[in-house]
Design goal:
By secondary structure, this protein is of the alpha+beta class. It is 50% helix and 10% strand. The protein contains 8 helices and 4 strands. The radius of gyration is 17 Å and the shape is globular.
């Protein structure tokens, strides 16, 4: 089975739509998903302007819990990851839906508990893993370092089995397989095309 790595930020509605799309596409095309994290707050922080992406000055994983908007969500995501890839994917989808469909806050522990319940994870194990904050922060730091090494700058960024990687903004939520699969195939065809198309951006009047 071929692996597609997806870099996500729970604050980002484009990342939510992208994950919903690839979640539908993956079983149709025999793909396995691997979720990784990229912080828009870290990437866009004023202290990191002009710095190489692989060497930020302001690092999300080192900030207090009461500070950045998405830090608690990232740590919760890493706690869910301890229960396996499938469980992590289900949790990520439910947390995105709670945030972007239901308008829930990402710094509310009850939001995480509800995501765990909807995703069918073991709540007691999740809470124990979440309380192991030091290791969750180390895991988050590794994700963000890896994203910097890859040059990730936005979410969702997809890394294909071929090694090709790209950021792609989805303006509409697509969950129907008959629409999602052709859209994904179009996206990957652009990446593999010999014309080396790097940027497509619509003008806004």
């Amino acid at each position: 089975m071929q692996i597609v790595t997806v870099y996500l930020d729970y604050l980002c509605p484009f990342a939510w739509r992208g994950l919903e799309l690839i979640h539908v596409v993956a079983p149709q095309l025999g793909l396995e998903l691997e979720l990784r994290h990229f912080s828009l707050e870290q990437g866009n922080h004023p202290e990191n302007q002009g710095q190489p992406r692989r060497a930020p000055v302001w690092k999300l994983a080192e900030q207090p819990l009461e500070g950045p908007r998405a830090l608690r969500a990232f740590l919760a995501s890493h706690a869910a990851r301890q229960q396996g890839k499938a469980a992590h994917l289900r949790f990520a989808l439910e947390l995105f839906r709670l945030r972007h469909q239901d308008g829930r806050e990402l710094d509310d522990d009850q939001t995480f508990v509800e995501a765990v319940s909807r995703a069918g994870l073991d709540l007691e194990r999740f809470m124990a893993d979440l309380e192991d904050e030091e290791n969750r922060r180390l895991e988050l730091a590794r994700d963000l370092e890896e994203a910097g090494e890859r040059g990730v700058f936005g979410t969702p960024t997809f890394v294909l089995p071929s090694g090709d990687a790209a950021y792609f903004r989805f303006t509409e939520l697509t969950t129907e397989p008959e629409l999602a699969v052709p859209l994904w195939e179009l996206f990957t065809a652009v990446l593999h095309n010999g014309a080396h198309v790097e940027t497509i951006k619509r003008p806004r009047p």
